[in-house]
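User: Teach me something about this protein's shape.
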Amino acid sequence: MEQNKTGKYLKYAIGEIILVVIGILIALSINNRNEERKTRQFEITILENIQEDILADKLDLVSNLQYQKEMISNEQLLLNLLLNNQTLSLDSIDYANALGIDLITAFHNASFNNLQNNDIGLISNNNLYKKITRYYDYYSATTIEAENKNNYANTYDEKFAFFKKHFKVNDIKRAVPFIDTGSDDKFKLVFERYTFSIRNIALLKADEEFKVVLAESLFINSFKHDFYVQILDKIVELNDNIEDELILLRKK
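Assistant: First, the predicted structure itself:
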């Protein structure tokens, strides 16, 4: 101070403070970039896993849809027969497939649940997050409710009561390819099921109650079929949306 060097010391001290602040800011910036990179990578992983899950859902839905088509087709043929369609051959109907089975649907939602259990803001694209949530909260939940929980939507038991009354079992089995997704990456199950034949065609055609049950079953199964088609369309759309988002995230 005696040598009038106060100004120089102040400038030096201020310079040191500025350097420290700059160093802190650089460190924070690097840390933030690292955190952003980790968050982005986690987001990519979550989206990739959800994408895998919905594509697995697609395989399951395609197999159910394939069987539904067989069931609906033979239900319609049988109903035509009951409504006195004289041009229809009795041998043209697969009665076992007209009876059908109660289908079970399983959706793969582990990745979505993982997202819900973490930060729901993890998916930066809010519009994409809404589409994913819509898929699980509506399409997935509705299908599981209809197929697995709602007895009204599964008509096997009602039809079975009339099949026991009007049909007999033949000593012939027919292979039923239950799962065939039509892709290279597919899982096949092949069942053998006994075939049925009509005991008394006159009594069968006179059973008005069975006609009602069969007509309602046809309506319900057709409705579920169309809903399955909608879900498959949504899966294709959602898969494309996720893929577009992944491309953008990987470029960052």
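Now, about its shape. The chain has one domain: 6-251. DSSP finds seven helices and two strands in the chain. If you'd like, I can walk through any region in more detail.
User: That's plenty for now, thanks!
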